[in-house]
Amino acid sequence: MLQVVPEIDRLLGIETFATKTSGIGGRIRGDTEDFQVEEILADGSRAHFALPDREPMALGASLEQSQRYLLCVLAKQNWDNFLAIKNVAIQLGIGQNSIQIAGIKDAKAVTAQYVTIENLKIEDTCRVNVSGIQLRPVGYLRYPLSVFYLLGNSFKIKITNIAQDKDKVNTQICQVIQETTELGGMPNYYGHQRFGTTRPITHYVGKAILEGDFEKAVMLFLAKPSPNEHPESRKARTDLQQTHDFKAALEYYPKQLRYERSILKFLNEEPNEYLKAFNVLPLKLQALFVQAYQSYLFNRFLSERIKNGLPLNRTEIGDFTVGIERTGLPMVNMPQTVTTQNQTKINEAITLGKMRLALPIVGFKQKLSSGIMGELEQHVLQQEDVNLQSFRVTINSQLGNRGSLRTAITPVKNFTYLNNTNNNNDPSASITFTLLRGCYATILLREIIKPQNLITAGF
């Protein structure tokens, strides 16, 4: 049966499913507690949302106060990562840049992750008193946290409102997992939260930045409405789009649109200084827009490969491949290009799980693939009217990006599920699994659910 891809998926460059099994349907995030994420570090340490008797040491942390960075567990519920960190920083009386994270976690979820905070003492953490946020000290480190120390994330997700019987759901889930296992993993698309599901505009803003058009970037961010967002927000954006009256917008823009309001306040004082207004946003958030556009291009590359019948677990001449560490993480900085001389050996290594196919994350230093895949990538860039040097962002070099590689598939570890669909009071299935860093649970969930409407399905 041909699976129809939702329109929002297509807007994000996700143009196909990798599995042929029909979806079980249902909804995620019916409640915030239905989507739980716990971070796992490279040394095996795990951040728990539930309060443990004592936080176990991680990354060699100690109670020696001479160390510069305090490692903590940041547990949050229904909080955007950046806003959570901002509120923690305010409570501690420090700058946001003093707090380092290894990875961004879902907003509409229950999550636990590690953070380091520069020059903070254990006893100072008790000053944080924000509803839905816990900051729990672990110990001191000599170095700040970064993505280098992140292995992946463990997920526990409840799919509710399943309208099929238990046996059929069992069969379908098993078949999807079997298909992904035979494939070597799930397709490594960038997931919906990278772009925003209710208002997927971050990659559009990123492209405007690459074009050097910061007025366009700012107005997209402020005033491009979405039919799926809250009606009050949609009307505010529509009105501003028509009037460009920043002073009036400050009166009616919803209070929860904090980042938008911070830009509006600046433009109210300096109406034509769009570059400066954009710089009101945290630098990490600014960079995410360009990264979102890179993610969109990667998704399109992967979609084109699948649509054109090219394999994900074998190579074609000209493909990039990367080796796999013992932890399972790909070594993207040490790629090999497939040639007629090494293709057989590389495919054998892929079968053994020692290598994986990789596609480019476009940047000013990252070359495209060669061969058939390279032709598909060139075609996408021509359609987008963008080139590799666009990613230098000369008007603001801090937003430029060198590019990299990303594996085409990623393994799904420790998958389990509990099927409760025959219970009329709770037609649901609870699944748990582990993914490597930078990989998205929603991509596996879309293969299992095959949603027709991402918004009503909770994505």
What do these coordinates show?
By secondary structure, the protein is of the alpha+beta class. It has 4 domains: 7-28 and 160-184 and 412-449, no CATH class; 37-152, Alpha-Beta Plaits (2-Layer Sandwich), CATH 3.30.70.3160; 202-281, Hypothetical Protein Yqey, Chain: A, domain1; 284-407, Pseudouridine synthase (2-Layer Sandwich). The chain is 32% helix and 20% strand. It contains 13 helices and 14 strands. The protein has helices at 7-11, 81-92, 166-183, 202-210, 214-223, 231-243, 246-252, 258-269, 274-278, 283-307, 343-351, 371-384, 441-449, and strands spanning 35-41, 69-77, 99-101, 110-118, 133-141, 150-159, 186-187, 320-324, 330-337, 355-361, 404-407, 409-410, 413-419, 429-436. The strands form 3 sheets. Strands 1, 2, 3, 4, 5, 6, 13 and 14 form an 8-stranded mixed beta sheet that branches. A 4-stranded antiparallel beta sheet has the order 9-8-10-11. β8 and β9 form a beta hairpin. The longest helix is centred in the middle third of the chain and has 25 residues, at 283-307. The chain is globular and about 60 Å long. The mean pLDDT is 94.
